[in-house]
Amino acid sequence: MSSANDNNVEGHALLPMGRSSEDGSEDGSEQSLSFSEALAEEDWDVISKKPKERKSIFGGRKWIFVLMVILALITIGVAISWRSKKTTSKANSLEGIAKDGYLLHGDWNFDAPPQERIFRWNITDKTINPDGVYRPMILINGEFPGPLIRVNEGDRIIVHIDNQASNATSFHWHGLFQNGTNHMDGTVGISQCPIAPGAQFVYNFTVPGQHGSYWYHAHQAVTASDGLFGPLIIHSKEEKKLQPMEYATDRVVMVHDHYYNLTSELLVHYLEPDRENAEPVPDTAMINGKNVRDCSTAPSRKCDSSSASLQNFSLDKGQNHRLRFINVGAFAEFQIQIDEHDFAVTEVDGTDVTSLERFHRLNILPAQRYSIILTTNITTADSFWLRARMVTTCFAEENAELQSEVRAIIQYGSSPASGALTATPESKDWSEVVELECRDMNTSSLRPVVAQEAPHRADVTVPLRSNFEIGDWKLSRGWLNQSSYRPNLKSPSLHRIMSGIQSKDDFFSTSSPGPSGKKITYAFNSDQELVYQTTGITIIDIIISNFDDGAHPFHLHGYKFFVLASGSGYFNYDYSTINTTNPLRRDTATVEAFGWVLLRLVADNPGIWPLHCHVAWHSEAGLLMQLWTRADMMKDWVLPKENLDLCQMEGLEKGGGPDDEIWYGAMKGLQSSKKPPP
Fold it and tell me: How far apart (Å, rounded) are the C-alpha atoms in residues 224 and 123?
C-alpha cells in the first residue's frame, strides 16, 4: 500500500496545472488481458495450478541420487529461511491485496509546509481472489483496494496514470472542491474524456481549504467496483483541536459490496428492456478488501479461500481510537456496529462534528463517510466483532450466493505475531430490533464544530423529480425531470462550454433559443443533459423529490451543501420550521423512497459540476444533472493540451456503458426515449 511516506511519493519541481513531467515510473506488472479473454481462459495458472510432468533424473546411479538429496536438503533449508519471511506461498497467496489495515501512522508531520505529493499508478488487469473467489479485476499498482493518498491541507497532489488495462478509465477525487481546477475533477463526459488503454495522464491539483476523510474512484461507467478505488485523507494543522475528542490511533475502514461477475456484464443485464430497475444484487461484502468465503457455498465459482482472512484491528486497551468509515461500494447501504461498544460520531463527509448523543450503530450509504471515536474500555473480553450488514430490504431481487454480513475483529492489545491465530470473538450482538428502512441515519444531533449559518433564503429553487420509467419493455432508465443522462465520451461538457465561450459568440446559449434569425450554438442535448447555469454567487435550493421505491444517495461534485430538511411524501414548501443555525454540511445526502430532501448551496465555485445518485447502477441509468456555476469567471480559462488530447485517443470508449442501440438498433431506444410526464 502506498502512502505519502512510501517510495511512490517523490519531490519534483512544481508542474504547471495539467502538465506532466517525463514519467520514469517502472511497470513491473504482468501483461494485461482483456476481460473477454479473462472470461474465456479456463486454465489460467493463477486459477488452476496443475502439476507439471517431470522426468526422472536418477538414471540408476546411486551417487547422483545421494548428491541430489544433499542439494535438495540445502534447497529446502533456503526455502524455509525465505518462507519464514513470507507467510504465504505463491500458489495460495492473495497477491495484490492491501494487508496493513490502512493505519495512519502517528509520525505524520501535521505542521509541514505545503508540498508536492507525487504518486505513480500503473492500471492493470489481474485476476485475484480477495475472499477466495477468483474474478478479473482492475488494479492500481497491483493492489486491492487501491493505495492510500495521505496529504496535508494546502498540498499539491500529482498522480501519474499509466493505463495498461484493457478498458479506458478516469479518476474522480470524491469530495474535493477543485476550485480553479474543474478539468481535474475526473468525470468522464463532463470534465474530461476517458484515459484510453495504453494512454497516460497526470492529475495535478491542490487541496486548500478542506480536510478530513475523502476517497477516489474510477468515474468510467461502473468500473470502480472492479477494483479502482481507495482512501484519500487530508490532514489539518488544527485537526486535533477540531476533533471533539482526543484519540491515540487513526485508521481507515472501507466497507463495500463485492460482485463476482464483471460490472460490465452486470450493467448490460441491468439496463436491458423490462428489467424494471432491478439492480444487481451483490454476492458478498468486504472490509478493506477482506473477507473469507466458504467455498462450499459458491459451488459454481473458482474458489480457494485458504489464504483469505478477516480484517483485524489491534487497538490498545483503555484508549480512544479514530475509525474513518467510508462506503466505497456500488449499491448496498450498510449498518455498522462494534459489539458491546458505543461510540461518538466526530466527522461527516469531511466536516468535523460534535454531539451529546452516543451511537452503537452507523448507517452508511454509498460514497458517505463517518469518523467515529471508539473507546476500548470493555472488561468482559479482549476481542469483539465489528459487523457490517447490508440492508437487504433495499434489494429488488434475491441472490442465492449473497453473504450479507462481513466481519472484522477488534482486538485489544498489540498486533499478534506473524502467523499467530487471533482468538475468535465471542462478543454479543446488540439485542434491539434493527431498522430496515433504506435511508440516512438520523444526524439531527450532529453539529459542525466550525459553526456556519446557512443563508436564510435562496435566490433560486431547482426542483428535481427523480424517477425510473419502467414496464412496457422499456429500458431501465432513470430520469431527473425530463432528462436521462448519457455521457458524451468524446466531447465533455466542459470542453463544449469553453469552446462556446472562446468562440466570442454573443448568442452562445446552453439551452434556450435566442433572438429570431440569430444562429444559436447549443452546448447540450436537453433530453440527455439537464444543466442549470448561474452567474455570480447564487444561493440555490435543490429540492429532490423521489418517485421511486429505492433510496438515492445524491452526491454533488465541487461542493458541500447544507442539509436543511428531509422527509417522506411531498415537500410542502413551508420554510417556517427550517433550521438555518449551523446545519450539517456534507457532499452526499440521501433521499428516501417516495420522499424528499432539501439542500441549500452557496454556488461560488466556477465550473461544471455533476449532481448524481451514487448508486453506481442508478447513475449509469441516467440519474445525473449538471450545475454550471460562476460561468462569469470562466471566460479566461484555457484547458491544458493534455486534457484535450485525451479525446483523440483510440479506444477511449472501452469500458463505457452500453448504447441503447444494442437493443433497439435503428429505433435508437424509441420506447425509452419517450419523456415521462412532467
Answer: 12
All cell numbers assigned to 336: 455498522
Q: Contact at 8 Å (CB) between 173 and 212?
A: no
DSSP codes joined into one string, 223-272: GGGGT-EEEEEEE-TTHHHHSSS--SEEEEEEEEEE-SS-HHHHHHHHHS
- The torsion of the CA quartet 214, 217, 221, 225, rounded to 10 degrees, works out to -110
Confidence of residue 521 (pLDDT cuts 50, 70, 90): low
CA distances to 13, 116, 128 from 10, in Å: 10, 8, 29
Sign of CA dihedral 7, 11, 17, 19: negative
**Amino acid of residue 123:** I
Q: Count of CB atoms within 10 A of residue 145's CB? A: 28
> Nine-digit cell at 618?
442508478
DSSP character at residue 319 = S
CA distances in angstroms from 129 to 121, 122, 126, 288, 302, listed in the order given? 21, 20, 10, 14, 9
- List strand residue ranges (DSSP E) for 88-129, in order: 116-128
List, in sequence order, every beta strand (DSSP E) within 557-643. Answer: 561-568, 585-586, 588-591, 595-603, 607-613, 624-629
Angle at CA 59, nearest 5°, toward 56 and 64?
100
pTM: 0.84
Q: Domains of the chain by range and CATH?
A: 460-667 (2.60.40.420)
The one-character DSSP state at 82 is: H
Round to whole Å and give the CA distance between 667 and 495.
29
Q: Is residue 597 within 8 Å of residue 590, measured between CB atoms?
A: yes
Q: Are 136 and 47 in contact (CB under 8 A)?
A: no
Q: CA–CA separation, 562 vs 565, rounded Å?
A: 9
Please state, in angstroms and rounded to a whole number, the distance separating the CA atoms of residues 536 and 633: 8
- Residue carrying C-alpha cell 468482559: 380
User: pLDDT tens digits for 419-467?
Assistant: 445 678 989 888 876 777 789 999 999 999 999 999 999 999 999 999 9
319/196 Cα distance (integer angstroms): 48
